[in-house]
Design brief:
Layout: E1 3-8, H1 12-23, E2 26-31, E3 43-46, E4 49-52, H2 61-68, E5 109-111, E6 116-119, E7 125-128, H3 132-142, H4 147-168, H5 177-189, H6 196-203, H7 207-212, H8 232-241, E8 244-246, H9 250-263, E9 267-269, E10 274-282, E11 285-293, E12 298-300, E13 303-306, H10 310-317, H11 328-332, E14 339-348, H12 353-356, E15 360-363, H13 369-378, E16 387-390, E17 404-413, H14 422-439, H15 446-449, E18 450-456, H16 458-464, E19 497-499, H17 510-527, E20 546-547
Parallel strand pairs: 1-2, 1-13, 2-9, 6-15, 13-19
Antiparallel strand pairs: 3-4, 5-8, 6-7, 10-11, 11-12, 12-20, 14-17, 14-18, 15-16, 16-17
This protein binds flavin-adenine dinucleotide.
Length: 551
C-alpha cells in the first residue's frame, strides 16, 4: 500500500528529506512558501548577476553523492554511512571526490583551494588549505614560540574528536537521555565539552591562531566562545574532504536536487505557505494527518515532516493543546543563533581581484572575543565587524556578465531579540562595509566600479524565511542545545510528525542538514516497519492532492 508524505519547506534539508522519502516508497509533496526552492540557498538573479543568497562552502561531497544515488524503493539506509572509498588518508581531497558518478550526472562540483584566505586587521593573512606543510609553515610564521608544537597536539586531538564525534556518532539520533549519557564519558575524555575558543587557546598562544582554529563555527551560527569543542571536528571535516563549489553556484545543486526528486516521482508546490499542521486525536494518541495552507485548502498525508524553522513550526503551526514537550515557554526560551546582514554586489573587474582575494575570504576585525560578546551576548550593533567575502566569479565567471564579478559579503549581527531597527540601520551599515572593502584596498575603487547592490538583514530571516527572531541558523549550537538537548527529529507529542534541517539534530550547515534527513528517514523507516529495501518496482507514485475544506 502506498503511503503519502508532506515536507514543509524546500531548504537543502527538506529536499534531502524528499529524496529519502521517495526512496522509502512514500509519495511525497514538498510545499514551499517561496516561489522557488532552496530556503537559505535561494538564488537571486538580477542585472545579469547570479547570487547564491546563502550557503557557498560545500563540504562532505559524498553526502551529496549518496542523495543522487537513491532510487525509488532503494533507500540504502542500511549501507555504511562512510563507505571505505571515502576514508583512508591518501584518498581524501586528492582523489577529487567532489563529483562521484551519480552527482556528475546532475551537477559539476569542483574543489576550491585555498579553503579560505583569513585576513587579520593588521593586513597579515593565513591561507588555510588543509595541507599539513603549508599549515605548519604559516603557524610558524604567524605564531608564538611553542605554537607549532601546539598545532601538532591540536591536530591530533581534533582528529580524535572528528573520529568519535563525526565518523562514529555523527548519525546518532539522541532521542532519549540514555543514548546521551552513554557518550558523555567519551566527550569528557576528549575534552570536547569545553568551549571551542577555550580548546584552541589550550594549544595556541597567538591570538591570530586562536582565531584561525575557531572561527569556522560562525559559518553554522555558533559562537566560538560558547560552542562545545566537539565543533573542532568542523576543521577536520574540511581538512579530510576539502571545500567545494557547485559550478553555476549552490543554486545549481538545489536545482539538481529538485530534478532528482521529481525524477523519483516527488511533487514540488511553490507559493504554498503552510498555516497549520493538522492533528487529530485517536484515543490517547495525537496524530499528524496533513496540513492546512494559507489559502484554506488542506492536504492529507500519512506523515508530515517540517523543514521550516524549529521554533515557528511549533509556535505557529501546531496548536498549543497538542504540545507538552514543545510548549510555548520551552520553545521561546531556547537561545537562537545570531543573524546576518548579507550584501550582494556586482562590480566591473579590474583584473587584480585575484591578487589580494580568493574565492572564500574571512576578513576579521580588530576585536574577536569582544565582538562575539556584542553579537551573541550584549546584542548590540558594534562599530567594528568581521565578514566573510565570497567571490565565486574567481572560479565560475558565468555568474556575472563578461568583465564583471558577482560577490557577497556576510556580516554576523545580533538576531531580532535585539530590537535593532534595520529599516534605519541597514543602508548606512551596508555602505560602511563596502567603503571599508574599498578603503582597505580589498576592492580598490569599488564605488566607481559598483553596478549592483542589494542586501538582506535579520528582517529577511524573520519575515521571508519565517525564522523565529530572524535567526540565520536555527537554535544556537551551545552544549545545552546539542545532541539530546537539540530539538528531536521526531515530535515527542505527536505521532507521524517529524523535523528535518538546521533546527533538528545534528544542526545547521549543509552537510548537517543532509545528515538530518538521513536520521529522520531512519526514524520514519523504523516507525513504519520499512526494512530498508522496499520492492524495486513499486507502482507509479501518487501525489498527495490538495483537498478543499478543512479536516
Ligand atoms: C547567508 C548564509 C550563508 C551560509 N553559508 C553556509 C556555507 O557556506 N556552508 C554551509 O554548510 N552552511 C552555510 N549556511 C548554513 C546553511 O545554509 C543552512 O544551515 C541550511 O541551508 C539550512 O537548511 P534547512 O534544510 O534547515 O532549510 P532552510 O534553508 O532554512 O529552508 C527552510 C524552508 O522552509 C520554508 N518555510 C518556512 N516556513 C514555511 C511555511 N510555513 N510553509 C511553507 N514553507 C515554509 C522557507 O521558505 C524555506 O524555504 C549559511 C547560511 C546562511 C544564512
Amino acid at each position: 500500500m502506498s503511503r503519502t508524505a508532506i515536507v514543509i519547506g524546500s531548504g537543502i534539508g527538506g529536499l534531502a528529506m524528499g529524496l529519502r522519502l521517495q526512496s522509502l516508497g512514500f509519495d511525497t509533496t514538498l510545499v514551499e512558501k517561496l516561489d522557488a526552492p532552496g530556503g537559505r540557498a535561494y538564488v537571486r538573479k538580477v542585472d545579469g548577476f547570479t547570487f547564491d543568497m546563502g550557503p557557498t562552502v560545500i563540504t562532505v561531497p559524498h553526502f551529496i553523492e549518496e542523495l543522487f544515488s537513491l532510487e525509488r524503493g532503494q533507500s540504502n539506509l542500511s549501507l555504511p554511512d562512510y563507505p571505505a572509498e571515502v576514508l583512508g588518508d591518501d584518498k581524501r581531497i586528492k582523489t577529487g571526490i567532489s563529483g562521484g558518478k551519480n552527482t556528475s550526472r546532475y551537477v559539476k562540483i569542483v574543489p576550491i583551494l585555498p579553503f579560505y584566505r583569513i585576513y587579520f586587521d593588521d593586513g597579515a593573512f593565513f591561507d588555510y588549505d588543509g595541507d599539513p606543510e603549508n599549515t605548519r609553515r604559516q603557524v610558524q610564521e604567524l605564531g608564538e614560540p611553542g605554537d607549532l608544537e601546539g598545532y601538532e597536539r591540536f591536530h591530533s586531538d581534533a582528529r580524535a574528536i572528528f573520529e568519535r564525534g563525526f565518523l562514529e556518532l555523527g548519525y546518532t539520533h539522541f532521542g532519549d537521555l540514555g543514548t546521551m549519557l552513554r557518550v558523555v564519558p567519551d566527550l569528557l575524555k576528549l575534552d570536547a565539552v569545553r568551549t571551542l575558543f577555550g580548546f584552541a587557546a589550550k594549544y595556541f598562544k597567538s591570538d591570530k591562531l586562536r582565531q584561525v582554529f575557531s572561527f569556522e563555527t560562525l559559518l553554522v551560527g555558533g559562537n566560538p566562545l560558547s560552542v562545545p569543542a566537539i565543533y573542532a571536528m568542523v576543521h577536520f571535516v574540511e581538512k579530510t574532504w576539502g571545500i567545494h563549489f557547485a559550478m553555476g553556484g549552490t543554486g545549481a545543486l538545489v536545482k539538481a536536487f529538485v530534478q532528482k526528486f521529481e525524477e523519483l516521482g516527488g511533487i514540488m508546490r511553490y507559493n504554498a505557505e503552510v498555516k497549520k499542521i493538522n492533528v487529530v486525536r485517536e484515543g490517547s494518541k495525537k496524530i499528524a494527518k496533513g496540513i492546512t495552507l494559507a489559502d484554506g485548502s488542506t492536504m492529507h498525508s500519512d506523515i508530515v515532516v517540517s523543514n521550516a524553522d524549529y521554533a515557528n513550526t511549533y509556535l505557529r503551526l501546531v496548536e498549543p493543546e497538542y504540545r507538552f514537550w514543545q510548549s510555548d515557554v520551552i520553545v521561546r526560551n531556547r537561545p537562537q543563533s545570531m543573524s546576518l546582514v548579507v550584501i550582494y554586489f556586482g562590480f566591473r573587474a579590474d583584473g587584480g581581484e585575484g591578487e589580494k582575494l580568493r574565492h572564500h575570504n574571512i576578513i576579521l576585525g580588530p576585536r574577536y572575543e569582544e565582538l562575539l560578546k556584542d553579537i551573541f551576548g550584549r546584542r548590540v550593533l558594534a562599530k567594528d565587524f568581521s565578514q566573510y567575502l565570497h567571490i565565486p566569479t574567481l572560479t565560475d565567471p558565468s555568474l556575472a556578465p563578461p568583465g564583471h564579478h558577482a560577490a557577497y559579503t556576510l556580516i554576523p549581527v545580533p538576531h531580532n531579540g535585539s530590537r535593532l531597527d534595520w529599516d534605519l540601520l541597514g543602508e548606512p551599515f551596508v555602505n560602511k562595509i563596502l567603503k571599508f572593502l574599498q578603503d582597505r584596498g580589498y576592492l580598490p575603487n569599488l564605488q566607481q566600479r559598483l553596478v549592483h547592490k542589494s542586501f538582506i538583514t535579520p528582517d529577511y530571516f524573520e519575515h521571508t524565511l519565517n525564522s523565529y527572531l530572524g535567526n540565520a541558523f536555527g537554535p544556537e549550537p551551545i552544549l545545552a542545545q546539542s545532541a539530546f538537548f537539540r530539538p528531536h527529529n521526531k515530535s515527542e507529542d505527536i505521532s507521524h510528525l517529524y523535523l528535518v534541517g538546521a533546527g533538528a539534530q545534528p544542526g545547521a550547515g549543509t552537510p548537517s542538514v543532509m545528515m538530518s534527513a538521513k536520521m529522520t528517514a531512519r526514524l520514519v523507516a523504523r516507525d513504519f516497519g520499512i526494512v530498508d529495501e522496499v520492492k524495486r518496482n513499486v507502482e507509479p507514485p501518487r501525489p498527495a492532492e490538495p483537498v478543499a475544506g478543512t479536516d
